[in-house]
Design brief:
The chain is α/β, with parallel strands linked by helices and about 220 residues long. The chain is built from nine helices and six strands, in the order αβββαβαβααβαααα. It has a single domain, classed as Ribonuclease H-like superfamily/Ribonuclease H (Nucleotidyltransferase, domain 5).
């Protein structure tokens, strides 16, 4: 499934970008809380699959009407279990470190997805783009974590979640799980959507870096 060639990687700009939120790094002991999808073709489309604890999907339904305030043409909120049936319709998918984290984590909690993953054309931006650029000396960052590259390449994030990190996502989910804090749930949803939207923007910046054009000043 590994993409090859510059043209092939550029083709993934219109892929479906996927990112997940969890309560830890070990799927056996952690919850899968959200799966966020984002795609830009004729429109900017986002979809959020939510662990439906306490009716979380319905609590977030109002976000669909506010999609344009968050920069999307359409935004759809679904319960997490619907991801399995919808994923059958995906073909080209991009993630950041998805081969090592996102896809195995999803497969643990939604075992039916193992079959579906085999049908996808998958670009792991970490493995197939960021690591080769680092090896060529074109990415001089302390590490290749998603948030590090987003900051280094000046990818803009929504100000309400610009300073958030993974541990904040865990805290917000626990506030929903134990305290029914709907504001915390909404902030977590915004964080997840921004992560996946910024992953696409990051791929654009990395492609520019490969070309040695727009990002030359960052070297």
């Amino acid at each position: 499934m590994a993409p090859s060639g510059k043209r092939h990687i550029e083709d993934y700009l219109d892929a479906v970008f996927l990112d997940i939120e969890t309560t830890g790094i070990n799927p056996a002991y952690s919850e899968l809380t959200l799966i966020a999808l984002y795609q830009e073709d004729a429109e900017k489309k986002a979809r959020l699959y939510v662990n439906n604890l306490h009716g979380a999907a319905e609590t977030l339904r109002y976000l669909e009407a506010e999609a344009q305030e968050y920069g999307y043409d359409t935004l759809t909120v679904c319960p997490l279990e619907q991801f399995v049936e919808h994923a059958d319709f995906l073909s080209r998918v991009a993630t950041y470190n998805g081969e090592q984290f996102d896809l195995p984590f999803i497969a643990h909690h939604l075992p039916q997805m193992r079959r579906v993953f085999r049908t996808w054309q998958h670009l792991d931006i970490y493995i197939h783009v960021a690591m080769p650029l680092r090896d060529l000396g074109l990415l001089r960052t302390p590490n290749l974590k998603l948030k590090t590259l987003i900051s280094y390449l000046h990818v803009p994030r929504h100000p309400s979640v610009a300073r958030m990190r993974g541990e904040d996502a865990v805290r917000l989910w626990n506030q929903w799980k134990h305290l029914y804090n709907s504001e915390a749930l909404a902030t977590l949803a915004t964080y997840a959507l921004e992560d996946v939207r910024c992953t696409r923007l990051l791929l654009e910046r990395l492609i520019d870096l490969r070309r040695g054009s727009a990002c030359d000043s960052l070297l």
